[in-house]
Amino acid sequence: MSPQLASPVDAAEMRALLYQLGTSVQLPDGAAAPACRPEQLGSAAFRQAHGLKYAYVAGAMANGIGSAEIVIAMGQAGMLGFFGAGGLGLERVEAAIQQVQAALGDKPYGFNLLHAPNEPDHEAATVELYLKYGVKLVEAAAYLDLTLPLVRYRTAGIHRGPDGQVVAPNRVIAKISRVEIASKFFSPPPAKYLQELVQRGDLTPEQAEMAATVPVAQDLTAEADSGGHTDNRPALTLLPTMLALRDRLQAQFAYAGGLRVGAAGGIATPASVAAAFAMGADFVVTGSINQACHESGSSDDVRKMLASAQQADTAMAPAGDMFEMGVKVQVLKRGTLFAMRAQKLYELYRAYDSLEALPAADREKIERDLFKAPLETIWEQTEAYFAKRDPRQNERAARDAKHKLALVFRWYLGQSSRWANAGEPGRQADYQVWCGPAMGAFNEWSRGTFLDGPAQRSVVPVALNLLVGAAALTRLHILKIQGFRPDPLLAAPFVMTLPELEACLA
Ligand SMILES: Cc1cc2nc3c(=O)[nH]c(=O)nc-3n(C[C@H](O)[C@H](O)[C@H](O)COP(=O)(O)O)c2cc1C
């Protein structure tokens, strides 16, 4: 049934109409917009493949910031959350798998798998853990190239279904900023890895043949300018390029199930969700805005800092995991000196080859302000850490003084994340908080509503507000292209509580 309006509509009446999402709108001047519900946004195939109601994903956030609580809340609401396994020991990841599996059963969930060029054994051990527990979906990120453990995960258990179709039970959603790496994920696994897996006895020759017909990842997230690791690409340019790649490689390989591309980076408002879907995104992925929610594994201190962030309050800073390679991550700048201090460490690392070569004044300053201890003491702690986690780092440091310098500096980069997550008193100036411009956009949009400030931010109402708002904006756009001129008051943010959302979506 379409409401037929007899008289011109004011902003409040228009808003009420737009948010009756299951009913088409018919305006007095003849303009009309169809029903549009959030569960219609994005790719139906994506929703079906992953058992989702909504094509909405909460991306992984390292050190358990992307917590089991987020994954569980998302899964229970018909959305997908990825646990942030990066930076955690395997025991913590194992405990999270048990917690999520017990809470969600068959409902959707996934875990993060990170490329770890510095710690290849850890990546391989993570894959074995996921295989052991039957984790069927990973978000693969930070890959500079494909790796053997990743291909092992994707191809394990591959078989033919009753209809003869190849079934790869383990699925990968790859998060990528660069076309050349995206092409590798959208292609079948390289023959050299399949041969190696056959030699190791992980695959039979028949399985290797089947594996050569499936993409490494059927789903790929185009990661634009985002919190954490990012190439700072604008979403407006990256997404169309990745969509074109999807279509080109699908035409080349003619995969049975097709390929899909989602959008991440800057997704924080109903308008950005609507825009991503209008541009053709099969799904959307958020990150920064979820860290600001109470379910995240971060601290209340950080949530408060995030709630006051504005659009330009982020900066690029050296990444702890790929420090020596000069890789950077996007972090919060407001309220912390981390970006500046970490950059200073990187400059010292570039200029000097050992702890002993550091100029006395610089050494004294960083010992006083950053490490709050002599560098020898920091090295002892670092050595003890790597003796457990990756002894080869210590062996290399014994031979290579510059590597030892890097490990000591990486202590600061690692601890600064830990201090932020723990809300360590007295260390606020060193908090490392990964965050993109999405946070400022969200704060601006939610200003003056109940989502203004950290107290009420919760991942499911945040996600549903973005989706419901995106559906309403999509309808508004359809009316506008027919000549409808909206009252400017209609642009004021409209945020609903969870019960209101549930009523709207019923
Ligand atoms: C605090 C934080 C930690 C993150 N850690 C990871 C990670 O460990 N692995 C990963 O794949 N992505 C990570 N990301 C990226 C997010 O999953 C997501 O792709 C990204 O934040 C989306 O962009 P946005 O920040 O603009 O929303 C992180 C993002 C944030 C904000």
What do these coordinates show?
The protein is α/β, with parallel strands linked by helices. It has two domains: 39-298, TIM Barrel; 304-432, no CATH class. The protein is built from 21 helices and 15 strands. An eight-stranded parallel barrel has the order 3-4-5-6-9-10-12-13, surrounded by seven helices. The protein is globular. The model has no long low-confidence stretch (mean pLDDT 96). Bound molecules: flavin mononucleotide. The site of flavin mononucleotide has 29 residues, from β5, β6, β13 and α12.
CATH fold node name of the largest domain = TIM Barrel
Largest sheet: 8 strands, parallel, barrel
**Superfamily at the CATH H level of the largest domain?**
Aldolase class I
What kind of oligomer do you see?
single chain
Low-confidence segments? none
Side-by-side strand order of the widest sheet: 3-4-5-6-9-10-12-13
- Gap between N and C termini, in Å? 16 Å
Mean pLDDT level: 96
Name given to the CATH architecture of the largest domain: Alpha-Beta Barrel
Radius of gyration: 24 Å
> What structural class do the secondary elements suggest?
alpha/beta
Strand content: 5-15%
Looking at the structure, what is the overall shape?
globular
Class of the largest domain, according to the CATH hierarchy? Alpha Beta
- How much helix, percentage-wise, in residues? 40-55%
**How many discrete domains?**
2
Number of strands: 15
Bound chemical compounds: flavin mononucleotide
Instruction: Please tally the helical runs, counting DSSP H or I stretches of 4 or more residues.
Output: 21
